[in-house]
Each structure stands twice: as structure tokens, then as C-alpha cells.
Amino acid sequence: MSFFEKIFGGKSDAPDQKSFWKKIESEEDLAKAIENSYHHKIAIFKHSTSCFISKTVLRNFEKEVENLHPEVNLYFLDLLAYRPLSSKIAADLEVRHESPQLIVIENGKAVNSASHEDITLSQIV
Questions:
Q1: Residues whose CB falls within 8 Å of the CB of residue 39, separated by 6 or more in sequence, listed in order
Q2: Nearest-angstrom CA–CA distance, 28 and 23
Q3: SS3 string of the chain?
């Protein structure tokens, strides 16, 4: 691992290493996530895997999440790999696209959203 990868993170820093993330990689995954919001509060973290700011916000958020209530389901969307899904989320939930972004959903509706340094656990709980 290079010096810069140690500081800024390399390609091996995959968020799916954290066990609490459920990936959104298809419209079916998104539909299941929205359906789950009728049973439990959910949150979707939209992340740009090539952006240093997004990586930093993601790491900080993951540190906070360790003590999250188990009834909250966290979903992860890689914006670069699944850009059409990101656009669909923005349109369907009527939330302006930002990156990084956390969207909290209950009963199929966005009830809160935050971006950049405003992303904290307090948006969910």
C-alpha cells in the first residue's frame, strides 16, 4: 500500500466490509429497500467512490453507526457504478441529488436528508 493510500484510502477500502450495509445495485434492491421502510426506518447512503470528501464522510459515519438501533436498515449506493439508480432515488423521493448524501425514509417517503459534513447519526435516530 502506498503512502497516499494509507492517508487517503485505496481502492481496497470497500464500504461493504462493514456488515451493517445492504447494497443497492438494482431497481429490485431499491424497491425492497423502499418496501422495508414501511416496516422499519431505513437510510440510504449515496457515496462517490472516487471522492476523498465522500470517503471521509463515509468513514466518520461508519464510526458513529456502531451503536445504531438494529431496527434501522442502512443501504449503500455506489454512485459511480449505479448512477441511474441514484437519479431514480432523487426523482422518486423528490430529494435533490448530492454526494455524499444520506436519505432517511419512512413509509416510502424521504423524511430527512443531509449531505457532506451534515451527515450524522442524528439524521436517523
A1: none
A2: 11
A3: CCHHHHHHCCCCCCHHHCCCEEECCCHHHHHHHHHHCCCCCEEEEEECCCCHHHHHHHHHHHHHHCCCCCCCEEEEEECCCCHHHHHHHHHHHCCCCCCCEEEEEECCEEEEEEEHHHCCHHHCC
Please tell me the pTM assigned to this model.
0.84
Query: Alpha-carbon distance 60 to 71, whole Å?
Result: 21
Grid coordinates in use for 73?
Answer: 436498515
Does position 18 have pLDDT exceeding 90, yes or no? no
Separation between Cα atoms, residue 20 and residue 30, nearest integer Å? 16
Cell of 120: 450524522
Architecture of 20-123 per CATH?
3-Layer(aba) Sandwich (3.40)
> pLDDT of 98-124, one tens digit each?
999 999 999 999 999 999 999 998 888
